[in-house]
Amino acid sequence: MVVRTKEEADHSLPYIVAVAALDGEVTPAQYTAERIAREDVQRLLRRVEVVPDPAFSRRFPEEHACRLTVTLADGRVLVREMSEYEGFHTRPMSWEGAVRKFSAVAGVHRPRPAREAVVKAVASLEKISVRNLVAHLV
Length: 138
Known about the structure:
mainly alpha, 3 domains, 8 helices, 2 strands, 9% strand, globular
């Protein structure tokens, strides 16, 4: 399997798992043509196997369960299972976490002062007009 485009990467669990393992995050930076084409992620994604677990599917939507099993070169097996994540309804994201995520996602599209203005506007939604909010978003 080779992932060549942002659209393919966005819909490829092997790509997402591989790039997350390599980069420690999945943000717009992981969907650039240069990052997608790099050999490290292309090599690792071919080693990722996605196996559906019907028991996990039955727990959805109350849980968003996932199990990651990594077999190391020396034969050791590491397993991590999760059923929620920051931002899931059972573990809401903090304001600080939301601001970090917004900055990571919007950073490629908006300069820092514009992002800070949006954050300030959203933080004071009860006090500003819709027109004022929209002015920061366009």
